[in-house]
Amino acid sequence: MSNPETTAPDPLGHALLAYQQGQLSATLAVHSSVADEEVLPAAYFFRSLWEMPELERTALEQCHGRVLDLGAGAGCHALELQTRGFVVKSVDISPGAVAVMQQRGVREVACHDLFDPALAQGEKFDTLLMLMNGLGLVGTLAGLERFLHHAKSLLNPGGQILATSSDISYMYEDEDGALVFDLNGSYYGEVTYSMQYGTEQGAEFGWIFADPSLLQDYATAAGYEVEFLEEDEHQQYLVRLSLGF
């Protein structure tokens, strides 16, 4: 049986494991369809409460009940919630990330894809947490619609989704400030990413940045109450999507 910590390709997981094991300078190269290559320090996934952006700290304050942390990374949000007495289940698709969370003391960890049917079996949750532009995990507009329906199978009555996302329309402004889109192309917020750690290149994956009006439309159509809680200077926002009782 293979060791999940060494299963490739998992550049994110291997970068997190390297940091956890003392390689504090470990970094990821992030390639995207809309920007130049960026360097992402593994240390960012290990930030403490006061190293988190204000949007994330607000989201943690708004959690209630049983929490499902989706795309949990190295578990920084779950660990903070545990100190506050919350019972949290943390999920990530990266086997390496799951191993790091277990090593760091996250009490309940599982390796799942966002749409894994196993997530909807058995218990339900009061809060789904999707931070670090976490709404992007749904991948595409079709994925957003699919997830909003899927999430209903994960939530208790009165449950909520707390998620961050961004409007990246500013990336398409010309020198006069006008927006330049290919109206016949896909939605401008649908981005393709890949990550690289050392020589290990990960597979491409879709990520969506949903502008607020689009999210409002999709979530309302799916039966959620939408409340925009906070926005920062980078056009990133925190939203609460609530189900009735």
Automatic annotation (TrEMBL):
Which Pfam families does its entry note?
Methyltransf_25
- Give the keywords, sorted: Methyltransferase, Transferase
Q: Which Gene3D superfamilies match?
A: Vaccinia Virus protein VP39
User: Example GO biological process term?
Assistant: methylation
Q: Could you tell me which residue ranges the Methyltransferase domain spans?
A: 67-159
The cross-references to InterPro entries, in alphabetical order and at most eight, read: Methyltransf_25, SAM-dependent_MTases_sf
Q: Which GO terms describe its molecular function?
A: methyltransferase activity
Q: Kindly give the SUPFAM superfamilies that the UniProt entry links to this protein.
A: S-adenosyl-L-methionine-dependent methyltransferases
Identification of the protein by name: Methyltransferase domain-containing protein
Q: What is the lineage of its organism?
A: Bacteria, Pseudomonadati, Bacteroidota, Cytophagia, Cytophagales
